[in-house]
Amino acid sequence: MSDIVLEARDLVKHFPLTQGILFKRQIGAVRAVDGINLQLRRGETLGIVGESGCGKSTLARMLVGLETPTSGDLFVQGRNMAKVGGAERRRGRRNIQLVMQDPYTSLNPRMTVGDIIGEPFEVHSEVLEKPKRRARVQELLDLVGLNPDHINRYPHQFSGGQRQRIGIARALALNPEIILCDEPVSALDVSIQAQVINLLEKLQKELGLSYIFIAHDLSVVRHIADRVAVMYLGRVVEIGTEDQIYENPTHPYTQALLSAVPVPDPKLRGMRDQIVLTGDVPSPANPPSGCRFRTRCWKAQEICAQREPELAVRQSSDHPSACHFAEVRDVVHAQR
Amino acid sequence: MSTDVNVKLDALPGLDSNALPLEVKDLHVEFRTRNGIARAVNGVSFSLRAGETRAILGESGCGKSVTAQAIMGILDSPPGFVTGGEIRYRGVDLLKLREEQRRKVRANRVAMIFQDALSALNPVFTVGFQLGELFRKHRGMSRADSKARAVELLDLVKIPAAKQRVNEYPHQFSGGMRQRVMIAMALALDPEVLIADEPTTALDVTVQAQIMSLLAELQQERNMGLLLITHDMGVVADVADQISVMYAGRVIEEAPVRDIYESPSHPYTKGLLESIPRLDLKGQELSAIKGLPPLLTDIPKGCAFNPRCRYAKDACRQDPVPPLHRVAPARSSACHFWKEVQADV
Ligand SMILES: Nc1ncnc2c1ncn2[C@@H]1O[C@H](COP(=O)(O)OP(=O)(O)OP(=O)(O)O)[C@@H](O)[C@H]1O
Ligand SMILES: Nc1ncnc2c1ncn2[C@@H]1O[C@H](COP(=O)(O)OP(=O)(O)OP(=O)(O)O)[C@@H](O)[C@H]1O
Ligand code: SF4
Ligand code: SF4
Ligand SMILES: [Mg+2]
Ligand SMILES: [Mg+2]
């Protein structure tokens, strides 16, 4: 069996921009995800970082099948999801589950915790016969560190961290091999965040899960990820092992991002080589020509406006980076 | 429309220009709700010098914003009530002032910026009008003069093409720019104290870095006291001079920034610092604080942290609450066993 459990090839999602109420005309498109190639290997955690609006959630939603790609291909365990039959597609989908950011809005307030966690069995009723479901839900509650006796409680009776555990239990219900976490701890306080990260790592070990972990907190991603992809305006601009990205970033955007993270150590104050970017992220409906980062890049040359840099390994580095002038720069980054 | 150009600040009772710009003493705030009394602030004290940055650090619901709202006099009341304490601006107890005097202090001397800039700005007026109004109302300036000042202010907070953008509406600005506009509004009347409640929490790190460096620059220029409310220990390490750590409505540790990070003297502070992911802990379990913060309607007896504390002993589960006491020059902790905590590395 292949070692690659999930693969995206040239994945694109454009949202049409329309004008007019009665007769909608398309006047353009938000290029939320604009040609992404990714591979997720068995048992690994791939971190995805990037600023708000760069397309992380849209990518995640395509990967779990909640959003249809405008173009491109998605392979689950080597099977092209667009080309297989209905039954096999369902099995593929079952294998990938999503944990969402907001523990306050992602759970239906009128359903009991038992019904929420058991809901996937209603959709995929072939997985487990009805009489066995309650016991399975209690087992799942126990697995994520909640009291199995609380199966009849409602979401509002749980704290944020506990609700995130409920979301994780629901994602695990169908025994998936791949879990996509879209900002799973962003809404939580640090002390609670640590509890949830520990839980995710424990589950990965015990169940052999593969994770895609989306977050904007770079130190959390560094802690949990084996490999990291950095996104900017719908594209991956740099990808590598956690070490390569954090120790030897070669794309100016990655460098700026890392250098902007405040270090939780007052002794290092003022010692950081901080790159303060000017300007805002351009609109994804109208990305700059050539390199999309060029409007904020301090290294930009003429060629950057003319030719889009390929995501490729260049002489100056050991991992793929989408910059014509990729080179290692040492930034004091997220951690000691 | 009332104009308070006439309320004279130098006529405030007890004003002493040598006193600290802000001093909070034993502040108590409670919310009287259907589910009981939520004791949101339970005896908070701290002071702020000119030019100093004090961070108020703590987890969600510990009373940081309520403390700020009480200082500003913008508490949601009812259900919120200040039930005790003093809030002194240059010696004047703000809690004893008439509302119009208070409003004057709020606009001119002690200003505040919020996490969510969009909800703090009025969507139906241009940014220039909202900024200009401050000068018209508080300084009695003409329309033309106040507009010119508005442009200057937008320039000051580094909004490009300020002359044009002054005529735009808040929704036409990005999140980071709106935050700049709010900073401009807060600084318009040259306050001595700026309270910033999670000013960058909703923003991306690159924008956060821009805003924090802007704030630091303006603070230095004006020798302003900055009360920075946050739960981000990276930001605190980067900009704060002094820290007050809050838990369940109390300050449980207070110290200069370096001391706190080097040798926390309260188990809660220690727990917070240990739960930050660190490079040398890669692949290991993070050390999380067990359990959850208490409900403010039902704060545990004795030390409020005792159900989650790994140092807790019998004394911690009984009243009295451990008071915030001096453990070294300029350092205080509200833990009975702070020595043990400090020694434990
Ligand atoms: N259903 C939609 N229709 C139109 N535009 C959309 C839709 N969903 C997302 N977008 C746009 O696509 C872009 C990418 O959005 P996405 O939510 O994927 O970003 P993100 O990286 O997850 O951001 P964040 O960090 O804020 O969650 C944004 O410009 C967003 O406004
Ligand atoms: N308008 C209100 N009505 C009732 N209770 C309130 C109100 N505002 C605040 N509280 C109570 O006061 C407590 C402290 O709230 P506060 O907003 O100060 O928390 P915080 O420390 O600022 O948290 P966060 O980090 O989430 O902003 C809350 O737990 C809440 O119970
Ligand atoms: S390709 Fe040019 S503009 Fe893009 S990141 Fe590299 S140097 Fe900057
Ligand atoms: S007083 Fe007791 S319970 Fe409270 S922090 Fe100190 S050791 Fe822990
Ligand atoms: Mg998102
Ligand atoms: Mg708050």
Structural account:
The complex is a heterodimer of chains A (336) and B (345). Chain A has 336 residues and is an alpha/beta fold. Chain A has a domain at 250-336. Chain A has ten helices and ten strands. In chain A, α5 runs parallel beside α6. The two termini of chain A are 39 Å apart. The model of chain A has no long low-confidence stretch (mean pLDDT 90). With 345 residues, chain B is of the alpha/beta class. Chain B has two domains: 15-48 and 73-193 and 204-212, Rossmann fold; 247-278 and 286-343, no CATH class. Chain B is 32% helix and 22% strand. Chain B has twelve helices and twelve strands. Chain B has an eight-stranded mixed sheet with strand order 6-7-8-3-9-10-12-11, with helices on both faces. A four-stranded antiparallel sheet of chain B has the order 2-1-4-5, with helices on one face. In chain B, α4 (127-139) crosses α5 and α7 packs parallel to α8 (205-222). Chain B is globular, with a radius of gyration of 21 Å. Mean pLDDT of chain B is 90; it is low at 1-6. The chains are: A alpha/beta (336), B alpha/beta (345). Chain A binds chain B through residues 51-52, 159-161, 189-195, 197-198, 201, 216, 218-220, 222-224, 242, 256-257, 260-269, 274, 276-278, 280, 335-336, and chain B through 59-60, 174-177, 204-210, 212-213, 231-238, 240, 257-258, 261, 271-273, 275-282, 285-290, 292. Bound molecules: adenosine-5'-triphosphate (2 copies), iron/sulfur cluster (2 copies) and magnesium ion (2 copies). One magnesium ion is lined by residues 64-65, 197 of chain B.
Short description:
The complex is a heterodimer of chains A (336) and B (345). Chain A has 336 residues and is an alpha/beta fold. Chain A has helices spanning 56-63, 86-94, 113-123, 133-143, 160-172, 190-207, 218-224, 242-247, 252-260, 302-306; strands at residues 4-19, 25-41, 45-49, 71-76, 79-80, 96-99, 178-182, 210-214, 227-232, 235-241.
